[in-house]
Amino acid sequence: MQAHPFAVTARSIGVALVLVLAATGDAEAATSLRANIMSNPNDGVSEFRPRISGDAVVWQRGSGASSDVFKWSGLAGINLTANGVADENPETDGVHVVWQQGSAGGRNIAVYDLLTGTTTILSSPGDERFPLVSGTTLGWIQMVDADGEVFVDPGPIGNQITVNPLVESEFSIDGDNLVWSEGDDLHQTLGTADDSHEVAVWNGALQGLYILTGPGTDDIHPVISGDTVVWQAGPDGSGDIWYGDTLGTSNLLFDGTDERNPHTDGSRVVWEHFDGLDFDLYIVDLASPNAAVPFTNDTLDDVTPQIDGNIIVWEKKVTPGDSEIWVSWKGGPPEPVLKSRANGRDDVAPRIDGDHFVYESCLNLGQPGELC
Known about the structure:
Elements: E1 47-53, E2 56-61, E3 68-72, E4 77-79, E5 87-92, E6 96-103, E7 106-113, E8 118-122, E9 128-134, E10 137-142, E11 149-153, E12 167-174, E13 177-183, E14 198-203, E15 208-212, E16 219-225, E17 228-233, E18 240-245, E19 250-254, E20 259-264, E21 268-274, E22 279-285, E23 293-294, E24 301-308, E25 311-319, E26 322-328, E27 335-336, E28 346-353, E29 356-362, E30 369-371
Antiparallel strand pairs: 1-2, 2-3, 3-4, 5-6, 6-7, 7-8, 9-10, 10-11, 12-13, 13-14, 14-15, 16-17, 17-18, 18-19, 20-21, 21-22, 22-23, 24-25, 25-26, 26-27, 28-29, 29-30
Protein backbone atom coordinates (compact mmCIF):
# COMPACT_ATOMS: atom_id res chain seq x y z
CA MET A 1 0.00 0.00 0.00
CA GLN A 2 1.29 3.43 -0.85
CA ALA A 3 2.12 5.87 1.94
CA HIS A 4 -0.90 7.92 2.91
CA PRO A 5 -0.78 11.34 1.26
CA PHE A 6 -2.10 13.60 3.96
CA ALA A 7 -0.82 15.67 6.82
CA VAL A 8 -2.78 17.54 9.43
CA THR A 9 -2.73 21.33 9.53
CA ALA A 10 -3.69 23.56 12.42
CA ARG A 11 -6.66 25.12 10.61
CA SER A 12 -10.24 24.49 11.77
CA ILE A 13 -13.11 23.33 9.58
CA GLY A 14 -16.11 25.57 9.06
CA VAL A 15 -18.62 22.72 9.08
CA ALA A 16 -21.56 22.46 11.50
CA LEU A 17 -22.54 19.22 13.15
CA VAL A 18 -24.92 16.59 11.88
CA LEU A 19 -26.72 16.63 15.15
CA VAL A 20 -25.76 19.55 17.33
CA LEU A 21 -26.83 19.56 20.94
CA ALA A 22 -25.17 22.68 22.27
CA ALA A 23 -26.17 25.01 25.04
CA THR A 24 -25.87 28.75 24.71
CA GLY A 25 -24.12 28.87 28.08
CA ASP A 26 -22.57 26.60 30.65
CA ALA A 27 -25.59 26.77 32.92
CA GLU A 28 -28.06 25.79 30.17
CA ALA A 29 -30.24 22.79 31.10
CA ALA A 30 -30.01 19.63 29.02
CA THR A 31 -33.71 19.84 28.16
CA SER A 32 -33.16 23.12 26.31
CA LEU A 33 -30.30 21.92 24.15
CA ARG A 34 -30.79 22.39 20.43
CA ALA A 35 -31.19 19.28 18.27
CA ASN A 36 -30.79 19.43 14.49
CA ILE A 37 -32.42 16.61 12.49
CA MET A 38 -30.26 16.19 9.44
CA SER A 39 -31.76 13.28 7.48
CA ASN A 40 -35.11 12.32 5.99
CA PRO A 41 -36.83 9.66 8.12
CA ASN A 42 -39.36 8.94 5.35
CA ASP A 43 -37.07 8.14 2.43
CA GLY A 44 -36.85 4.40 3.23
CA VAL A 45 -33.05 4.42 3.49
CA SER A 46 -31.19 3.86 6.74
CA GLU A 47 -28.59 6.41 7.81
CA PHE A 48 -26.40 5.13 10.59
CA ARG A 49 -22.94 4.76 12.14
CA PRO A 50 -22.41 8.48 12.84
CA ARG A 51 -18.94 9.67 13.82
CA ILE A 52 -18.15 13.08 15.27
CA SER A 53 -14.92 14.99 15.80
CA GLY A 54 -14.82 18.71 16.41
CA ASP A 55 -17.07 20.37 13.85
CA ALA A 56 -17.18 17.33 11.56
CA VAL A 57 -19.88 14.66 11.49
CA VAL A 58 -19.97 11.84 8.98
CA TRP A 59 -22.12 8.76 8.53
CA GLN A 60 -23.07 5.91 6.21
CA ARG A 61 -26.25 5.95 4.15
CA GLY A 62 -27.57 2.66 2.79
CA SER A 63 -25.79 -0.69 2.59
CA GLY A 64 -23.99 -2.87 0.08
CA ALA A 65 -23.36 -1.41 -3.36
CA SER A 66 -25.90 1.32 -2.57
CA SER A 67 -23.99 2.62 0.45
CA ASP A 68 -22.48 6.10 0.44
CA VAL A 69 -20.62 8.33 2.88
CA PHE A 70 -22.20 11.64 3.92
CA LYS A 71 -21.10 14.66 5.91
CA TRP A 72 -23.12 17.47 7.48
CA SER A 73 -22.87 20.85 5.76
CA GLY A 74 -24.63 22.82 8.48
CA LEU A 75 -27.88 22.76 6.52
CA ALA A 76 -28.10 19.29 5.01
CA GLY A 77 -26.30 16.02 4.49
CA ILE A 78 -23.82 16.17 1.60
CA ASN A 79 -22.70 12.97 -0.09
CA LEU A 80 -18.95 12.44 -0.38
CA THR A 81 -19.52 9.44 -2.65
CA ALA A 82 -21.93 8.54 -5.46
CA ASN A 83 -20.02 5.93 -7.41
CA GLY A 84 -22.16 2.77 -7.45
CA VAL A 85 -19.80 0.80 -5.20
CA ALA A 86 -19.90 0.07 -1.48
CA ASP A 87 -18.56 3.02 0.54
CA GLU A 88 -18.72 1.91 4.16
CA ASN A 89 -17.50 2.39 7.74
CA PRO A 90 -16.56 6.10 7.69
CA GLU A 91 -14.42 7.60 10.46
CA THR A 92 -13.18 11.16 11.00
CA ASP A 93 -10.66 13.05 13.08
CA GLY A 94 -12.17 16.44 12.22
CA VAL A 95 -9.77 17.11 9.35
CA HIS A 96 -9.98 13.91 7.31
CA VAL A 97 -12.68 11.35 6.61
CA VAL A 98 -11.64 7.78 5.83
CA TRP A 99 -13.71 4.81 4.74
CA GLN A 100 -13.45 1.50 2.89
CA GLN A 101 -14.41 1.62 -0.78
CA GLY A 102 -15.32 -1.44 -2.82
CA SER A 103 -13.25 -2.33 -5.85
CA ALA A 104 -12.89 -5.26 -8.24
CA GLY A 105 -10.06 -6.76 -6.20
CA GLY A 106 -11.54 -6.20 -2.73
CA ARG A 107 -11.62 -2.89 -0.87
CA ASN A 108 -9.37 0.16 -0.81
CA ILE A 109 -9.12 3.02 1.69
CA ALA A 110 -10.50 6.40 0.67
CA VAL A 111 -9.29 9.61 2.33
CA TYR A 112 -11.31 12.83 2.04
CA ASP A 113 -9.69 16.10 3.10
CA LEU A 114 -12.31 18.34 4.74
CA LEU A 115 -10.13 21.40 4.18
CA THR A 116 -9.55 20.99 0.44
CA GLY A 117 -12.60 18.89 -0.48
CA THR A 118 -10.49 16.33 -2.32
CA THR A 119 -10.61 12.53 -2.12
CA THR A 120 -7.61 10.25 -2.51
CA ILE A 121 -7.93 6.49 -3.01
CA LEU A 122 -5.09 4.49 -1.46
CA SER A 123 -4.99 1.68 -3.97
CA SER A 124 -3.62 -1.71 -3.04
CA PRO A 125 -3.77 -5.24 -4.47
CA GLY A 126 -5.06 -6.39 -1.07
CA ASP A 127 -8.38 -6.05 0.73
CA GLU A 128 -8.40 -3.24 3.32
CA ARG A 129 -11.15 -2.72 5.87
CA PHE A 130 -12.21 -0.62 8.88
CA PRO A 131 -9.82 2.34 8.54
CA LEU A 132 -9.24 4.75 11.44
CA VAL A 133 -7.57 8.15 11.35
CA SER A 134 -6.22 10.46 14.03
CA GLY A 135 -3.85 13.27 13.16
CA THR A 136 -1.14 11.87 10.92
CA THR A 137 -1.85 8.24 11.88
CA LEU A 138 -3.88 5.87 9.72
CA GLY A 139 -4.77 2.35 10.86
CA TRP A 140 -6.64 -0.44 9.08
CA ILE A 141 -7.18 -4.19 8.70
CA GLN A 142 -5.65 -5.81 5.63
CA MET A 143 -6.76 -9.29 4.61
CA VAL A 144 -3.31 -10.74 4.00
CA ASP A 145 -4.57 -14.00 5.54
CA ALA A 146 -7.90 -15.57 6.51
CA ASP A 147 -8.40 -13.47 9.63
CA GLY A 148 -6.72 -10.20 8.58
CA GLU A 149 -3.89 -8.27 10.23
CA VAL A 150 -3.50 -4.78 11.67
CA PHE A 151 -1.57 -2.21 9.65
CA VAL A 152 -0.60 1.31 10.66
CA ASP A 153 1.02 4.25 8.87
CA PRO A 154 3.41 5.61 9.98
CA GLY A 155 4.67 2.31 11.31
CA PRO A 156 7.27 -0.37 10.68
CA ILE A 157 8.51 -1.19 7.21
CA GLY A 158 5.54 -2.61 5.33
CA ASN A 159 3.15 -1.08 7.92
CA GLN A 160 2.10 -4.48 9.30
CA ILE A 161 2.06 -4.73 13.12
CA THR A 162 0.34 -8.08 13.77
CA VAL A 163 1.16 -11.55 12.46
CA ASN A 164 -1.11 -14.07 14.15
CA PRO A 165 -4.12 -16.39 13.63
CA LEU A 166 -6.36 -14.04 15.62
CA VAL A 167 -9.34 -11.94 14.58
CA GLU A 168 -8.80 -8.24 15.36
CA SER A 169 -11.88 -6.05 15.92
CA GLU A 170 -13.35 -3.21 17.99
CA PHE A 171 -10.78 -0.60 17.00
CA SER A 172 -10.23 2.67 18.82
CA ILE A 173 -7.63 5.33 18.01
CA ASP A 174 -6.32 8.48 19.64
CA GLY A 175 -3.29 10.30 18.29
CA ASP A 176 -0.70 7.76 17.23
CA ASN A 177 -2.03 5.07 19.61
CA LEU A 178 -4.32 2.29 18.45
CA VAL A 179 -6.17 -0.31 20.52
CA TRP A 180 -8.27 -3.35 19.61
CA SER A 181 -9.60 -6.69 20.83
CA GLU A 182 -8.21 -9.87 19.29
CA GLY A 183 -9.75 -13.34 19.56
CA ASP A 184 -8.11 -16.73 19.20
CA ASP A 185 -10.67 -18.36 16.93
CA LEU A 186 -12.39 -17.34 13.71
CA HIS A 187 -15.75 -18.61 14.99
CA GLN A 188 -15.88 -17.01 18.40
CA THR A 189 -18.41 -14.36 19.27
CA LEU A 190 -17.53 -11.34 21.35
CA GLY A 191 -19.04 -11.36 24.81
CA THR A 192 -19.71 -15.09 25.18
CA ALA A 193 -18.32 -17.41 27.83
CA ASP A 194 -16.35 -19.59 25.38
CA ASP A 195 -14.33 -16.61 24.22
CA SER A 196 -10.74 -15.74 24.95
CA HIS A 197 -10.07 -12.28 23.58
CA GLU A 198 -7.26 -9.99 24.64
CA VAL A 199 -6.77 -6.25 24.35
CA ALA A 200 -3.79 -5.14 22.29
CA VAL A 201 -2.39 -1.62 22.05
CA TRP A 202 0.02 -0.05 19.55
CA ASN A 203 2.17 2.72 21.00
CA GLY A 204 2.98 4.90 18.01
CA ALA A 205 5.64 7.00 19.73
CA LEU A 206 7.60 3.90 20.78
CA GLN A 207 6.58 1.84 17.74
CA GLY A 208 5.71 -0.95 20.18
CA LEU A 209 2.91 -3.51 20.45
CA TYR A 210 1.68 -4.51 23.93
CA ILE A 211 -0.92 -6.95 25.24
CA LEU A 212 -2.99 -5.63 28.14
CA THR A 213 -3.46 -8.73 30.27
CA GLY A 214 -6.71 -9.00 32.20
CA PRO A 215 -7.86 -11.81 34.50
CA GLY A 216 -7.46 -14.60 31.93
CA THR A 217 -10.93 -14.21 30.49
CA ASP A 218 -12.60 -12.42 27.61
CA ASP A 219 -11.18 -8.87 27.24
CA ILE A 220 -13.47 -6.83 24.98
CA HIS A 221 -14.85 -3.37 24.14
CA PRO A 222 -11.59 -1.40 24.52
CA VAL A 223 -11.58 2.40 24.33
CA ILE A 224 -8.51 4.66 24.29
CA SER A 225 -8.12 8.32 25.21
CA GLY A 226 -4.60 9.72 25.34
CA ASP A 227 -2.52 7.03 27.03
CA THR A 228 -5.45 5.54 28.95
CA VAL A 229 -7.19 2.33 27.85
CA VAL A 230 -10.33 0.89 29.45
CA TRP A 231 -12.14 -2.34 28.63
CA GLN A 232 -14.60 -4.98 29.78
CA ALA A 233 -12.95 -8.10 31.21
CA GLY A 234 -15.29 -11.05 31.06
CA PRO A 235 -18.39 -11.81 29.01
CA ASP A 236 -21.72 -10.05 29.33
CA GLY A 237 -23.25 -11.29 32.57
CA SER A 238 -20.01 -11.51 34.56
CA GLY A 239 -17.74 -8.72 33.36
CA ASP A 240 -15.48 -6.39 35.33
CA ILE A 241 -13.92 -3.07 34.29
CA TRP A 242 -10.16 -2.86 33.78
CA TYR A 243 -7.86 -0.05 32.77
CA GLY A 244 -4.29 0.20 31.50
CA ASP A 245 -1.96 2.32 29.41
CA THR A 246 0.02 2.29 26.19
CA LEU A 247 3.04 0.73 27.93
CA GLY A 248 1.25 -2.53 28.69
CA THR A 249 0.26 -2.09 32.34
CA SER A 250 -3.14 -3.40 33.44
CA ASN A 251 -5.19 -2.91 36.60
CA LEU A 252 -8.59 -3.94 37.89
CA LEU A 253 -10.79 -0.85 38.10
CA PHE A 254 -14.10 -2.27 39.34
CA ASP A 255 -15.00 -5.81 40.40
CA GLY A 256 -18.77 -6.18 40.12
CA THR A 257 -21.34 -8.75 39.11
CA ASP A 258 -22.08 -7.56 35.56
CA GLU A 259 -20.14 -4.51 34.34
CA ARG A 260 -20.22 -3.57 30.64
CA ASN A 261 -19.27 -1.12 27.90
CA PRO A 262 -16.86 1.35 29.52
CA HIS A 263 -15.97 4.70 27.99
CA THR A 264 -13.29 7.20 28.99
CA ASP A 265 -12.04 10.68 28.22
CA GLY A 266 -8.67 9.85 29.76
CA SER A 267 -9.54 11.31 33.17
CA ARG A 268 -12.79 9.61 34.12
CA VAL A 269 -14.46 6.31 33.22
CA VAL A 270 -18.18 5.59 32.95
CA TRP A 271 -19.81 2.19 32.36
CA GLU A 272 -22.96 0.08 32.75
CA HIS A 273 -23.45 -1.57 36.16
CA PHE A 274 -26.13 -4.21 36.82
CA ASP A 275 -27.59 -3.71 40.29
CA GLY A 276 -29.71 -6.88 40.28
CA LEU A 277 -32.74 -5.20 38.71
CA ASP A 278 -31.52 -3.02 35.85
CA PHE A 279 -28.43 -1.35 34.39
CA ASP A 280 -27.37 1.94 35.95
CA LEU A 281 -24.24 3.97 35.24
CA TYR A 282 -21.16 4.03 37.45
CA ILE A 283 -18.39 6.58 37.21
CA VAL A 284 -14.88 6.92 38.60
CA ASP A 285 -12.15 9.55 38.50
CA LEU A 286 -8.87 7.85 37.55
CA ALA A 287 -7.09 10.11 40.03
CA SER A 288 -8.92 8.06 42.69
CA PRO A 289 -9.51 4.73 40.90
CA ASN A 290 -10.84 2.95 44.01
CA ALA A 291 -13.70 5.41 44.50
CA ALA A 292 -16.30 4.42 41.88
CA VAL A 293 -19.78 5.79 42.60
CA PRO A 294 -23.27 5.37 41.11
CA PHE A 295 -24.14 8.02 38.55
CA THR A 296 -27.74 6.99 37.79
CA ASN A 297 -30.21 5.04 39.92
CA ASP A 298 -33.72 4.29 38.70
CA THR A 299 -35.76 1.35 37.39
CA LEU A 300 -34.81 1.78 33.71
CA ASP A 301 -31.74 0.50 31.87
CA ASP A 302 -29.06 3.15 31.24
CA VAL A 303 -26.67 1.91 28.54
CA THR A 304 -23.96 2.88 25.99
CA PRO A 305 -22.55 5.84 27.96
CA GLN A 306 -20.10 8.35 26.47
CA ILE A 307 -18.09 10.91 28.42
CA ASP A 308 -16.09 13.98 27.46
CA GLY A 309 -15.05 16.31 30.27
CA ASN A 310 -18.06 17.19 32.38
CA ILE A 311 -20.63 16.02 29.83
CA ILE A 312 -22.04 12.48 29.87
CA VAL A 313 -24.57 11.17 27.36
CA TRP A 314 -26.28 7.77 27.18
CA GLU A 315 -29.34 5.80 26.08
CA LYS A 316 -32.19 5.17 28.52
CA LYS A 317 -34.45 2.26 27.62
CA VAL A 318 -37.86 3.66 28.56
CA THR A 319 -40.18 1.23 26.80
CA PRO A 320 -39.62 -1.30 23.99
CA GLY A 321 -39.27 0.70 20.78
CA ASP A 322 -38.90 4.02 22.58
CA SER A 323 -35.43 4.63 23.98
CA GLU A 324 -34.41 8.16 24.89
CA ILE A 325 -31.12 10.04 24.91
CA TRP A 326 -30.22 11.43 28.32
CA VAL A 327 -27.40 13.78 29.22
CA SER A 328 -25.70 15.26 32.25
CA TRP A 329 -24.72 18.66 30.88
CA LYS A 330 -21.59 20.13 32.43
CA GLY A 331 -22.09 18.55 35.82
CA GLY A 332 -25.85 19.03 35.90
CA PRO A 333 -28.41 16.38 36.84
CA PRO A 334 -29.40 13.67 34.35
CA GLU A 335 -32.11 14.93 32.00
CA PRO A 336 -33.63 13.74 28.72
CA VAL A 337 -33.01 15.45 25.40
CA LEU A 338 -36.51 16.71 24.59
CA LYS A 339 -36.28 15.78 20.90
CA SER A 340 -35.93 12.13 21.95
CA ARG A 341 -38.59 12.07 24.65
CA ALA A 342 -41.77 10.00 24.13
CA ASN A 343 -41.38 10.22 20.34
CA GLY A 344 -42.19 6.59 19.52
CA ARG A 345 -38.65 6.03 18.22
CA ASP A 346 -35.56 4.24 19.43
CA ASP A 347 -32.93 6.93 19.98
CA VAL A 348 -29.65 5.06 20.32
CA ALA A 349 -25.88 4.95 19.82
CA PRO A 350 -24.78 8.40 21.02
CA ARG A 351 -21.27 9.60 20.12
CA ILE A 352 -19.72 12.63 21.81
CA ASP A 353 -16.88 15.03 21.12
CA GLY A 354 -16.54 18.19 23.18
CA ASP A 355 -19.93 19.80 23.79
CA HIS A 356 -21.68 18.23 20.78
CA PHE A 357 -23.01 14.74 20.25
CA VAL A 358 -24.83 12.77 17.59
CA TYR A 359 -27.15 9.78 17.77
CA GLU A 360 -29.37 7.55 15.65
CA SER A 361 -33.15 7.81 15.77
CA CYS A 362 -35.07 4.80 14.44
CA LEU A 363 -38.73 3.88 14.16
CA ASN A 364 -37.60 0.48 15.39
CA LEU A 365 -34.07 -0.89 15.58
CA GLY A 366 -33.16 -2.37 12.23
CA GLN A 367 -35.59 -0.09 10.35
CA PRO A 368 -34.72 3.02 8.33
CA GLY A 369 -33.67 5.77 10.68
CA GLU A 370 -32.44 9.31 10.82
CA LEU A 371 -29.53 10.98 12.51
CA CYS A 372 -29.80 13.73 15.08
